[in-house]
Specification:
The N and C termini lie far apart (about 110 Å). This protein is mainly alpha-helical. It has helices at about 1-45, 50-169. It has one domain. The protein has two helices and no strands. This is DEUP1 protein. Its main location: cytoplasm. Keywords: Coiled coil, Cytoplasm. It is found in: Cytoplasm.
Length: about 170
């Protein structure tokens, strides 16, 4: 997208340069036209140089035609320049809108990520607490199992002793 903008700017600059050259030529033509008019006024006084006046008039008409053509060309170039400027402006606006949308999306995603990090930290804390509780319960159950095994062993010993005593009686 940046390359498109750069290309449009370059094209716009070349149109502006062309526009300035045309304006300079128009100024030169106007200066020449003024000189021709002055010369024509001086020559108009002198009747003997009517043929040169006719020639100057023709030159002036030719210059006027050239000037008219240059003015028309300049107007078309101005219209084209305005189209390019409008297109460039629309592209820049579109680019700015896209950047704003992306900034908003990044901000939303960052907030969502932050919330998920908080949730993960909370879950990890709860898991750690549950793990400690499970260790404590396992430790208690292991102690109870050891006591039960000891009691089973004593019970079997007493039972065996009772059986032995019964047999002896």
């Amino acid at each position: 997208m940046e390359a498109g903008f750069s290309e449009m700017r370059n094209e716009l600059q070349s149109w502006v340069a062309l526009w300035r050259r045309i304006q300079l030529e128009c100024q030169q033509l106007h200066t020449e036209l003024s000189k021709i008019r002055e010369y024509k006024d001086i020559q108009g006084i002198q009747i003997k140089h009517q043929s040169s006046c006719v020639q100057l008039t023709e030159q002036q008409e030719n210059k006027n035609t050239e000037l008219l053509l240059l003015t028309q060309s300049q107007e078309r170039q101005r219209e084209e320049l305005n189209k390019i400027r409008n297109h460039l402006y629309q592209e820049e606006q579109s680019h700015c809108s896209e950047q704003e949308r992306m900034k908003t999306e990044i901000s939303d995603l960052s907030e969502e990520l932050h919330q998920k990090e908080i949730t993960i930290a909370t879950i990890m804390e709860k898991a750690s607490l549950l793990q400690r509780q499970l260790r404590m319960e396992l430790e208690i159950k292991n102690k109870l199992l050891a006591k039960q095994q000891l009691l089973d062993f004593r019970y079997k010993a007493v039972k065996s002793e009772n059986t032995h005593l019964k047999e002896m009686m």
